[in-house]
Amino acid sequence: MFQVFKKLDWFFKHYWRRYTFAIIALVISSAIGLIPPKLVGYVIDRIQFETLTMQLLVMIVAGYLILTIVHYGISFLWDYTLFGGAVILERWTRSKMMDHFLKMTPTFYGKYRTGDLMARSTNDLKTINLTAGFGVLTLVDSSIFMLMIVGMMGFTISWNLTLAALIPLPIMAIVMNKYGAAIHARFTKAQEAFSEMNNEVLESIRGVRVIRAFVQEEQDEKRFYSRTNDVYEKNIEVAKIDALFEPTMKILVGLSYTIGLGYGALLVFENRITLGDLVTFNVYLGMLIWPMFAVGELINILQRGNASLDRVNNTLDYQADITNPDYPQTVREVNTIDFDAVSFSYPSTNSNQLTDISLNVKKGQTIGVVGKTGAGKTTLFKLMLRQYPGLVGAIKMSGIDIDSIELDEIRSWIGYVPQDQMMFSKSIRENIQFGKEDATDKEIYRVMELAHFLEDIKQLPNGLNTQVGESGVTLSGGQKQRVALARAFIKDPEILILDDSMSAVDGKTEAKIIEHLRDERKNKTTFIAAHRMSAVTHADHIIVLEDGKIAEEGTHEELMKLNGWYKEQYQQQQLADDGEVRS
């Protein structure tokens, strides 16, 4: 049960001063809270024996008020310090998770879905926060505070009465332990169900246009109802155990009250304790209710916290597939890029996606990469970005294997525009500035001209300040591609990779962008993957991939002379374009 505290020992060790102060202040506050019942019993005995004077009563009331003020001040200090530490843990863990997410490769995101990661980053972290705050409070109150009350009852009133009143405690410990085990198992299932629901909601929101286009709203509602019903049922199972805590505690506390009152009255009749002692004892017994409840709350919180911490640690323990080298080498300038017999297969497959790829690229060259869908174009670029392990052969930059170069250094050279453009839910200006944080509007307009986006920006309601919406929902496919191109252009990278990133623009617009590229990218290396052959005709070297192998390579003119797949595709596309122009 206390494993969760052991798992969090790294945090408690770092903030041991904060937690030591909070616990000491909590204990002092609890000790002060034990004094007023003794004052009440003392006053009752004075009244009974007619020895209470006005002066004594004023002193007792004044002392009571002073104790209340001091108790309030100390309570504020421990509350602020303890729960402030819990908030720090939540912030720290959330930052740690975000940092971990940014280091992860596509393999990780293939294993964990977005909704699951969101659930772990929200619900589970809140539960861990509760463990580090309220969990520590209940631990202290259910142990130290309880012992303090028992000590006061035993040493200052009667041990016989105290032990008799505490007979239900062992029963409570056994029952609570069983409840705790059930809570852990059921809460884990409930959190997993919540993760699944998150995933489905996220997919429904992202695919809302497709759902409407296929008139699947009713079916999607049914799926969502089924998923929410599953979450509801699993949380009800947790609530059933939760609901047993309070009644069980009330029964046991009621039993303690019954024993205390009955046996205590007998001791008063036998003059073994005074009436004031009996009143004080019952006040202490009332104060003992919270520590008893705290035992149940502690078990509940620790089991939930343990389940959530296991889920979070399971995510954080996932080792990155790609890491920085132990002894990195520095490349001052990328003069050449060499693919030396590169072969590769994805972790989840048994067949190669790339086989024996050899290519020499000099600085300033434009390389065209074409081929059928699934031929391996995107895979080739992902290996350049070091997104996957398991590469056979070598990719070298200026003669240095990329495995020997730091990841940040490699990626700082590269501007990458993927097939699926990611637009952030910000303005167009902010989306473009993602490539260069301090870019001025003048620079932004310049790259928008290169990306042939100036006319579009004039038609948008707020110009550069236009909000693109969730994943760029307010922009067309072609507009998103051109904003993504502008974002890469403003970075002005040494190596620019365009992975079929002009598929949604028309041939005329594509031709203008390519023309701007040729003028802008002189003496800088560019890779262009495309299904439209016109996008790569100007390239210094073109490779045709087929089933992960280089089937043809050369310049446009050389490939046309080969009478192979490239020539066939080029001629078909030219005929199609001519037909469109005539129509």
From TrEMBL:
Keyword Transmembrane helix: yes
Gene3D superfamilies: ABC transporter type 1, transmembrane domain, P-loop containing nucleotide triphosphate hydrolases
Principal localisation: membrane
A GO term for molecular function: ATP binding
Swiss-Prot/TrEMBL keywords: ATP-binding, Cell membrane, Membrane, Nucleotide-binding, Transmembrane, Transmembrane helix, Transport
Membrane topology: Multi-pass membrane protein
Transmembrane residue ranges: 21-44, 56-89, 128-151, 157-176, 251-269, 281-302
PANTHER family to which the protein is assigned, alphabetical: ATP-BINDING CASSETTE SUB-FAMILY B MEMBER 10, MITOCHONDRIAL, ATP-DEPENDENT PERMEASE MDL1, MITOCHONDRIAL
Protein name: ATP-binding cassette, subfamily B
Species per Swiss-Prot/TrEMBL record: Virgibacillus salinus
